[in-house]
Write a structure and sequence with these properties.
Distance between the termini: 13 Å
Number of domains: 3
Radius of gyration: 20 Å
Strand content: 25-35%
CATH class of the largest domain: Alpha Beta
Helix content: 25-40%
Strand order of the largest sheet: 14-13-12-15-16
Length: about 290
């Protein structure tokens, strides 16, 4: 089976080792996986039919595509041409917009911090119903970027221009600061959970300098996570949680284009092998 591995150009450079890992594991499963860069694709309509070109040339369509991009419109074009995309366009659309994710998750009554959705944010402080401190996030940000802990008016006005005319979410802080949990999910299965901690920042992201360790999920925690899993048709995602003041999980966000540095640093789980086995099983079944 032939597949495309699609990355933005800058991320392909940064993730060269991970790309090599995917391609090597693919060969073991008779999956030929070719790296292609999103910037070199052209999608549209040719002779009244949906089309996709690469470097302005027609291409032979693959059996599947692994989309390491946050571009649900592009993924939808591939799906409309009969290509199975991992993760799907609908997962990409929901999970790469924090407000949409929270809105969707709320249907299952999953615990979270109080959150306000402010699309096309004007920057007016009066639009925020919470007292200081609060957290403001770009709804389309990822990796802990475009996330600010705002303690007072001075910090607010120092940072507000970052968010004007963007979709943002504003949240009350969780009960426990500087600690979060990433749960790695493939299909309908929980693979592992990693606790991320920071003593210097309210954000505990591993790539931002936090520490990480495997975390044993309780039955209650697993049950809540499976409620989220059953809302979606996931392929490979990371579901992130915060902690309240007594250590209970609070839903935070879902990473569609999830990395695995924390899992690789804390375990010998071959997450790429498991993901490609899932992909092959899905293709054989479909």
């Amino acid at each position: 089976m032939n597949g495309w591995l699609i990355y933005p150009k800058n991320e392909a450079i940064r993730n060269k080792a991970y790309i090599n890992w995917i391609q090597a594991e693919g060969k073991k499963l008779n999956l030929s996986i070719k790296l292609l860069l999103r910037e070199y694709f052209q999608i549209g309509i040719t002779e009244s039919e949906l089309s996709v070109m690469y470097e302005n040339k027609k291409v032979t369509l693959p059996d599947f595509a692994i989309a390491r991009i946050m571009d649900p419109f592009f993924s939808k074009q591939l799906e409309s041409l009969g290509i199975r995309v991992f993760n799907s366009a609908i997962v990409s659309e929901i999970c790469n917009h924090k407000a949409k994710t929270h809105q969707y998750i709320a249907s299952a009554s999953i615990p979270t911090v109080d959150t306000v959705f402010l699309n096309d944010f004007s920057g007016e402080l009066s639009m925020i119903p919470f007292p200081f401190p609060f957290i403001i996030k770009d709804a389309k940000g990822r990796g802990g970027k475009q996330v600010f802990f705002i303690s007072d008016k001075e910090e607010y006005f120092q940072n507000v221009n970052t968010f004007i005319a963007r979709d943002v979410i504003v949240q009350r802080p969780a009960g426990t600061i500087g600690k979060d949990l990433r749960v790695f999910v493939i299909g309908k299965e929980i693979i592992a959970a990693v606790l991320r901690s920071s003593t210097t920042d309210f954000k505990a992201n591993f790539t931002l300098g936090g520490s990480a360790q495997l975390y044993p999920l309780s039955e209650v925690e697993q049950a809540m996570i499976y409620k989220i899993i059953h809302l979606f048709d996931f392929d490979f995602v990371g579901i992130d949680f915060l902690f309240d003041e007594v250590g209970n999980l609070l839903f935070n966000e879902i990473e569609d284009v999830v990395g695995s540095r924390t899992l690789s640093s804390t375990s010998d789980i071959n997450i790429v092998e498991l993901y490609l086995q899932h992909i092959k099983a899905k293709l054989n079944k479909g």
